[in-house]
Amino acid sequence: MMNSKGILKTISIALILLINIGCDQISKDLVRKRIGYNETISLIDNHLTLTKVENTGAFLSVGSGLPDLLKFILLSGVPLLALAFGIVYLFTRQHLSMISRLALSFAIGGGIGNIYDRIIYGSVTDFLHLNFGIFQTGIFNMADVSITVGMMLFFVQSYFTKGLGTKMESDNLN
Questions:
Q1: Theoretical Cys-Cys bridge with 105: which of 16, 18, 148, 150, CB 3.0 to 4.6 Å?
Q2: 73: which DSSP letter?
């Protein structure tokens, strides 16, 4: 039986997942309904623009030219298995740190948002573009932002955990 702390963890994980999926799907729905294909709308002095495109591949359209069956297996089947594993892992591991739970929730929520599009629409709607001169992105969406935030949280945790581990090891040697 789950104690109140476990119930709170489960609810918070589910809530973070739903918020990530919801923000992604609501933003994509608005873009699908209100922006024409390849229409560009400048939001912040051409540094942040909206440009609606449909991505039939993975990151930066990688794999968009693959045969349909192979594309489905690699871009839908494999990610579905990985997301299913991630969800089970997220909800069953009792001793994950808060930052690990948060990172996984963001990454899985973003992954669910993109895989939903790929299965329902046959492509992923991308619409955000950043341009700061020497730094410029491809066109992406809120699911990609969620995945990136999740990965950044993992890297930050890894850096600080490694730093602490190294310090503790050197303390034990002395």
A1: 16
A2: I
* Residues 46-99 pLDDT 10s: 899 999 999 988 776 677 788 888 888 888 999 999 999 999 999 999 888 999
What beta strand segments (E) does 63-154 contain? 124-132, 135-136
Q: Which of 24, 29, 68, 126 is an active site residue? A: 126
Catalytic residue, candidates 45, 117, 144, 171: 144
Single pTM value for the model: 0.85
Structural domain of 47: 4-173
Distance CA 43, CA 35 (A): 13
Q: Which tokens is 142 given?
A: 């809120």
Q: 19 versus 167: which is more confidently predicted?
A: 19
Q: How many CA atoms lie within 13 A of 96 on its CB side?
A: 21
Alpha-carbon Rg for the chain in angstroms:
19
Count structural domains, the chain.
1
Quick one: which H or E segment has residue 35? Answer: none
> How far is it, in rounded angstroms, from Cα 46 to Cα 33?
22
For this structure, is 144 an active site residue?
yes
